[in-house]
Write a structure and sequence with these properties.
Strand order of the largest sheet of chain A: 2-1-10-9-11-12-13-14-15
CATH architecture of the largest domain in chain A: 3-Layer(aba) Sandwich
Largest sheet of chain B: none
Strand content of chain A: 25-35%
Number of helices of chain A: 15
Shape of chain A: globular
CATH class of the largest domain in chain A: Alpha Beta
CATH superfamily of chain B: ACP-like
Number of domains of chain B: 1
Number of strands of chain A: 26
Order of helices and strands of chain B: HHHH
CATH topology of chain B: Non-ribosomal Peptide Synthetase Peptidyl Carrier Protein, Chain A
Number of helices of chain B: 4
Structural class of chain A: alpha/beta
Distance between the termini of chain B: 5 Å
Largest sheet of chain A: 9 strands, mixed
CATH architecture of chain B: Orthogonal Bundle
Oligomer: heterodimer
Radius of gyration of chain A: 23 Å
CATH superfamily of the largest domain in chain A: ANL, N-terminal domain
Helix content of chain A: 25-40%
Low-confidence stretches of chain B: none
Number of domains of chain A: 2
Chain lengths: 534, 78
């Protein structure tokens, strides 16, 4: 990377950390030079797809033709709506190498939610999988945007040779590489801008933390529209010349051990919720290659960790991070002997972390405060949200809204969130997202959404609704209403109609009429959870 | 033992109902049905194995992402 780079305040750190490239294209091209015939990607399926480094480079160059035919220019944003697939990987890297900003969108969210992201990001084009065509056609009122359906990486347009005389666009380390949408407290998701610097620093840090090399083979079982899995499963193996196996995320878990065994997988990452699922199955491990599993996004319980490690003999490494920090900012020590069980680990070399009080003063060791982060991996800010940026990035730190503490040896511990964010199977959902949908129902006067414990997903969703007196709407009808208006993973598991309760008249509120989510959760736990096995 | 398509459809519908994929029809795909997630996919393939007394290879399990493909694959095992 260029010397004397000028970083914004919350990206500056006091320790030394060298970034070796100016952008993802430089990194990728260097790896192509090092091992053109080495495999970078395997996508098992009816027709298994394999990309060597050289083949992916060729595909990337050919994809430039498609970009140019759509009159896309450097720094334009393009939405990518795919399940995990070789098509997504090819378009993702092509966009980054061309100088576009990729906006990967979760294909399971509702069409309305997709429209918000596409319009808010001012995407110039949408690339989508043909299997999602009906959903894409349902996106109404799109601003001026070009639609490009992709059926297969084997389509002829990916094999049309690029004009070699075309000069590569200049890409600065500060240029936005991806913009990812994460849940917002107001109900609308926020676009987090992540630069080439963010991606490079984090992929270097993680690949070095876990001692990746050219023999590293990651298994990607979670959706690549999420930054944590992009970095851990695509970019970190790339940084050291390794490879990755990707599978449609919804089918990967059932075949987890078969995939590890068949493809000599050495490393994987995912939500802690995958562990009890694998434990619940009778399938045993046959491989001798898997060395580590990195877990994040949910609290990892010690019992599950111990049961998993005792049975499968693979160490689990807990970590913590956010979209705003390009995923993981701290990870438990590697190798396994360096771990402190119960901790979210130590700070990665690309960033610093501290615990601050409400006046941005360091609370010291063993005291609870807000987890704050700064470093090369921290976003420059949210797209077009000035006020939110002022609130979240201040005093030289990114304020995460999460609470925790650190011990005298530098290990961090996660305590909880301040703003009632629900983390269901690793997906962030703010109560307001579902509340906004419920308020559109003509019978609902008032509602509040809380997270409730779930043994596999960590949390699930429960909505409390107060309906008009004359209303006869049922829980099933309200669930049906939600199904039509919000993405699958944001559907409530339970809807409690307050009118039908004899011990609660209203949604609990404080003196300023602010909903008391904690009281509501307490009510739920006492009434419904006491005898539940969830 | 080979079965006819009506019996296959009937048994499959029973499985889908049992695992909570009520909204699904015999043309549905994993992309159309938000409730068909990774946990449901495990339940689905396990239930198919149990109902039809077959053992599905992993390379089939990862492509059984639509009801037509599932039907075709089951037929291959019977």
């Amino acid at each position: 990377m260029e010397e004397n780079i000028s970083l914004i305040k919350h990206q500056q750190i006091s320790k030394k950390f060298k970034i070796d490239y100016n952008n993802i294209r430089e990194l990728f091209y260097e790896k192509v030079k090092d091992g053109p015939d080495d495999i970078f990607l395997i996508s098992p399926g009816e027709n298994t797809v394999e990309f060597t480094y050289a083949k992916l480079k060729l595909l990337i160059k050919n994809t430039y033709n498609i970009f140019r035919s759509l009159e896309l220019k450097s720094k334009d944003r393009v939405s990518l709506i795919f399940h995990n697939s070789p098509e997504f990987v090819a378009l993702y890297f092509s966009a980054l190498c061309f100088g576009l900003t990729a906006v990967p969108i979760n294909p399971d969210i509702a069409s309305k939610e997709m429209r918000y992201i596409i319009n808010d990001s001012k995407s110039k084009a949408i690339f989508y999988s043909n299997v999602l065509e009906s959903k894409i056609k349902n996106i109404k009122n799109l601003d001026d945007v070009k639609l490009k359906k992709i059926t297969s990486i084997n389509d002829q347009e990916f094999s049309l040779k690029n004009d070699d005389s075309f000069e590569e666009n200049e890409i600065s380390v500060y240029d936005a590489a991806v913009t990812l949408y994460t849940s917002g407290t107001s109900g609308n998701p926020k676009g987090v801008i992540l630069s080439h610097l963010n991606l490079l620093s984090k992929s270097k840090a993680i690949s070095e933390w876990f001692h990746f090399d050219t023999k590293t083979r990651a298994l990607c079982i979670l959706p690549l529209d999420h930054i944590a899995w992009q970095v851990t499963n695509l970019l970190s193996p790339l940084y050291q010349g390794g490879s990755t196996v990707i599978v449609q995320e919804k089918v990967s878990l059932r075949s987890f051990w078969d995939l590890v065994n068949r493809y000599d997988v050495t490393w994987t990452s995912g939500m802690a919720s995958i562990l009890p699922i694998l434990l619940s199955r009778s399938k045993e491990r046959k491989d001798q290659t898997l060395k580590a599993i990195l877990c994040g996004g949910q609290i990892l319980t010690r019992t599950v960790q111990k049961q998993f490690e005792d049975r499968f003999k693979v160490p689990i490494f807990d970590g913590y991070g956010l979209t705003e920090t390009t995923g993981f900012t701290c990870i438990n020590g590697f190798p396994a002997e360096k771990r402190r069980i119960g901790s979210i680990g130590k700070v990665l070399p690309a960033n610093e972390m501290t615990i601050l009080d409400e006046n941005s003063k360091d609370v010291g060791e063993n005291n609870v405060g807000e987890i704050c982060i700064r470093g090369y991996n921290v976003t420059s800010g949210y797209l077009g949200l000035k006020e939110k940026n002022k609130e979240s990035f201040r005093d030289g730190w990114f304020h995460s809204g999460d609470f925790g503490w650190k011990d005298s040896d530098g290990f961090f511990y996660f305590q909880g969130r301040e703003d009632f964010l629900i983390i269901k199977g690793g997906m962030n959902i703010y109560p307001a997202e579902l509340e906004n949908v419920l308020y559109q129902h003509p019978d609902i006067i008032e509602c509040a959404v809380i997270g409730i414990p779930h043994k596999l997903l960590g949390e699930d969703i429960c909505a409390f609704v107060k309906c008009k007196e004359e209303s006869e709407v049922s829980e099933m009808e309200l669930k049906e209403f939600c199904k039509n208006n919000i993405g699958g993973f944001k559907q409530p598991q339970k809807i409690v109609i307050i009118n039908l309760l004899d011990d609660l008249d209203d949604i609990p509120k404080g003196p300023t009429k602010k909903i008391l989510y904690r009281d509501l959760k307490k009510y739920y736990m006492e009434k419904y959870q006491k005898n539940s096995k969830n | 033992m080979p079965i006819d398509t009506n019996e296959l459809d009937m048994k499959l519908e029973e499985i889908l109902k049992k695992i909570g994929l009520d909204d699904i029809n015999l043309e549905s795909t994993i992309e159309d049905i938000p409730d068909w997630d990774s946990f449901t996919h495990i339940q689905l393939i396990d239930a198919i194995e149990e109902k039809f007394k077959i053992e599905i290879e992993f390379n089939d399990a990862i492509i059984m992402t639509s009801i037509p493909i599932i039907k075709k694959k089951i037929m291959n095992y019977l």
